[in-house]
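Dig into my protein:

:::
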Amino acid sequence: MIDVLLIGGKNATLTELSRLLNLQEGVAVTEVSSEEKAMEIASRNEHQLVIVDEKTNKNSGIEFTKQLIATNPLLNCAIVSSLGEEDFHESTEGLGVLSSIPKTPAPEDVERLLTLLKRILGLLK
């Protein structure tokens, strides 16, 4: 089972992302809207993947991901972003973020991210 933590407010992007993740076999999704609750949950290291929305209730997704990783450097994180690939890479360089996810996620975006995660976790060769 892959446990995914979605962090951000209720919006079309996270609703669709949650729907697409829940369609995947062996994936469970937990959704939280506040940074405080997200930090509490992420510190327990129960999730194999953390996905942060482009904007949380207090910060940009990138800024909040920096805080998460500072608290728990072993987190596998992805961030919803409207930035182009090069700008996203520049903004997250050195953080170890797995991937960006477009604001309008498609099934192939979720499949690509989960395939990458499974390789990291040793579930795929």
Helices lie at 12-22, 35-43, 61-71, 85-92, 107-120. The CA atoms of residues 11 and 69 lie 24 Å apart.
